[in-house]
Amino acid sequence: MVTYIIRRLIAAVLMLVIVSIATFSIFFVIPRAAGVTASDFANRYVGVKGATAETVKATAEKLGFYDPLVVQYGRWVKGIVAGSEFDTGVDVEHCPAPCFGYSFITKQPVWPDLLDRLPVTLSLAVGASVIWLVTGVATGVLSALRRGSIFDRGAMTVALAGVSLPIFFTGIVSLVFFSYKFGITAPGGSYTPITENPAEWAYDLILPWITLAFLLSAAYARLTRAGMLETMSEDYIRTARAKGLREPRVIVKHGLRAALTPIVTIFGLDLGLLLGGAILTETTFSLNGIGKYGVHAIAVGDLPQILGVTTVATFFVVFANLAVDLLYAVVDPRVRLG
Amino acid sequence: MSEALLSVDGLQKHFPVTKGLLKRQVGAVKAVDGISFEVRKGETLGVVGESGCGKTTTGRLITRLIEPTGGKIVFEGRDISHMSQGKLRPLRRDVQMIFQDPYSSLNPRHTVGAIVGAPFRIQGVQTEHGVKRAVQDILALVGLNPEHYNRYPHEFSGGQRQRIGIARTLALKPKLIVADEPVSALDVSIQAQVVNLLEDLQNELDLTYVVIAHDLSVVRHISDRVAVMYLGKIVELADQKDLYKSPMHPYTNALLSAVPIPDVKGRQGRERIRLQGDVPSPLNPPPACRFHTRCWKAQEICKQVEPPLVELATGHEVACHFPENAPAKGDAPAEAGATA
Amino acid sequence: MTDEHFLDVKDLRIHFPTDDGLVKSVDGLSFHLERGKTLGIVGESGSGKSVTSLGILGLHKGGHAKISGEIWLDGEELVSASLDHVRSLRGKKMAMIFQDPLSSMHPYYSVGDQIVEAYRVHNKVTKQVARKHAIDMLDRVGIPQPERRFDSYPHEFSGGMRQRAMIAMALVNNPDLLIADEPTTALDVTVQAQILDLMRDLQRDFNAALIIITHDLGVVAELSDDILVMYGGKAIEYGTGADIFERPEHPYTWGLLGSMPRLDREPTERLLPIKGSPPSLINVPSGCAFHPRCAFEPRTHGKGKSEVPELIESEGGHLVRCHLTRDERRAIWETEIKPNLEATL
């Protein structure tokens, strides 16, 4: 077990390194190959039109854009691990670890920006996940038990709609109706930190939660239904009934328990993915989370920000994966880690 | 005695077991651990044993579906133990395998014609009247309606599917057919049909069989000679008549005694030998004689010295320190007397 | 024979409506059984033998199956009883052992917990008391170190140990009726022998009525007092072990005996199989369900195809469902079948 965790941790770190190299390559190496020069990069920092060639060159030198790419990557990683010093010309600025560098555009360090936005994404993802898990699993179980009934068919039709309708559609439609027409939910762009006012926090987020949960609970309902149909036809369900157990106990303790295992796996991965930024939801509801931050960074080509967001997103996915595998071993005694 | 079509010498197959950070090999499942036997032209060799005895692995080794860890497999004078897949291609025509499950071993998306005809196409065999005609001839041979050429496996019953599986193996006129539990998935009344079919085909086509099964009655009915396996070893190998009439190895005795007899008269009178416990794990088999943990005749020597497989009567080989029904020393063949 | 049997099944029918038609899995089945006695039900796939056993436990109740007839257990009728009442009898008065002990036990719970659960459904006791009782049961069915094995999971047991644990679970409430559906089919032959011995011993100790359902005539012969041979959802022959093995009268029973190679006799040159395959229950042949496969059908003068034969007493409780007359059947057995089965004796 311990060796397994160590092995998985090493693999997780390795994964982070690989993804960061890939991202680094995409934004630093490929543009070079396409003819973008170090000066062009530097130009982004200097930013002002009409900066002299010397200024640009000096900036590029200072930022190390002429160094070999390996050195640049190493410096970037070192910044994350140990922090780094930036010579602004006037004085030396210390950027504490984890330092993801400075934005090309705002000249602000990336990490505090990310920290600012993390609670928004976290609130959105966790709140929505509770809703979709409860509604999705409940719907799936009921559908499976009443297979072929009107409830089942209705639920599965809605689920199909949920899976197929994009967030920017459901999100905007619900905003139009619930916020602007009926005024029962907060308008887009509202966010109150939970530490300030939990009720306000929930009120502001309820619409994004439901919209996001609608999409995912649809998928979970279908998954749970399929899983329940399978487990309820297992031999051990027959055994449980032959013992004289009451049906609710057979369904929950023997059926659902086994059917939930794959759902736990997917749930971990979905949550990990969302923590790295729920791009569509955040954009639709104008929430300043990691996802919206990332989209903006890509739109303006702010490389340090892009790298920061990808790294954080990868971190969540990789560790969600690890958590899922460990959880799997806890849930299913047949799974042996090692 | 006719010549050997296949001979196996000291055959081993160990599956490694790994553990830890660096996937260190910590042990091996010794599925087959040094067995020797030969299969003579035109005979049926039965291989019996309980789960984990290595009989299925043996079947997969002699058909070279897997590569042995050690030992030698010689087919028609050629050593095929470590032949590459490319070189094995011609061998695939001569050695065919029938599988246990007639449900999962046929591709549900292919027609019977495609399944039975596949070997022709794969091996690029030219047929006189075209592949279709050849396939229909084979279907008739195994007792299926040739007009069912275009049907799919799911349209057939279990017994018919096993016939399709047999037809597929016959397409290229193999010399050796290895059948792994060919009837155990079938209903009783269908088992008999398939057993009879296998016997008829053997007579008509001059086939040689290795039949691997757990059912001692079926193996007795179909085999000329029988090998009994236990935890990767052959413990007894003899003519069918000798083995069932005067088994020498205690394990063989126990196996035979455990088979329930469909008769109410004999059930009180029969002498029963009941083995205690289950078969030990092949990952960590008992030392020396592997049967000693369950054997009622075991003595100190059984825990320390592994008994070799020796010929105690003509054609009757046993690996036991205290064989039963063994002839007096003087009757045994000379070489066996020397080693014993 | 008394009027009231411990278990008395009368004209049981279990039909399943499907998209392809009505599946008559069990179609007019009657039999009875006393405490301490064993009934063997023999049949091939689709004969209705497993559906019968689940039907007695009421496991088809509340589903889409159509059930009629009567099942009297210890003076109580179960077909008309409420689902909840039948449920309360399950596991307590009647229990079941299944074929594959690995898939029949829940993979996520320890063996001991599953036995405790079975005990506590019917007994209001603390977990500690139930645990002790479960350990006693594990010990009783021959599981070594039951205290330690209590917390093991099913996948950590060998096949034989798992089946012992299943038996412990079935017997934990001291049931009066035990149904074993192919209890040894998934096991190795030496382990099968152990389990059959165990079941014989336990039945004697518990004085339960035992129904053993199997395709293996050898297993049936080992344990049964009475034997019921099923084909196409109906009983085609019903009698004592001696009736079935020494003077069988139905062509299907002859076919089963002829299909089995036997260790207790000299090998015959050829097996004597039944032609064709067991019928699909959606499309049961007209008349006698066995007639398309019956070698003696021509001797029924067309009745085999058109009329369903009745289950009629041949002699002393030996019932046979066949159009041939008793004398015809006996003559065929003595002159045409028996000599072939013992050809080289």
Task: Write structural notes for this entry.
The complex is a heterotrimer of chains A (338), B (340) and C (345). Chain A is mostly helical and 338 residues long. In chain A, 37% of the residues are buried. The model of chain A has no long low-confidence stretch (mean pLDDT 84). Chain A is built from 13 helices and two strands. In chain B, helix 3 crosses helix 4, helix 4 (130-141) crosses helix 5 (158-170) and helix 5 (158-170) runs parallel beside helix 6. The two termini of chain B are 25 Å apart. In chain B, the strands form two sheets. Chain B has an eight-stranded mixed beta sheet, with helices on both faces. Chain B is globular and about 65 Å long. Chain B has a single domain (4-19, 27-105, 174-260, 270-339), classed as Rossmann fold. The relative contact order of chain B is 0.13. Chain C is globular, with a radius of gyration of 21 Å. Among the domains of chain C are: 101-174, no CATH class; 241-341, no CATH class. Chain C has 345 residues and is an alpha/beta fold. Chain C starts with 6 loop residues before the first strand and ends with a helix. The longest helix of chain C is centred in the middle third of the chain and has 18 residues, at 189-206. Chain C has an eight-stranded mixed beta sheet with strand order 6-7-8-3-9-10-12-11, with helices on both faces. A four-stranded antiparallel beta sheet of chain C has the order 2-1-4-5, covered by helices on one side. Chain C has helices at 49-56, 83-89, 101-104, 111-122, 127-140, 146-149, 159-171, 189-206, 217-223, 241-246, 251-259, 303-306, 326-341; strands at residues 7-18, 21-33, 38-42, 66-73, 76-77, 94-97, 177-181, 209-214, 226-231, 234-240, 311-315, 318-321.
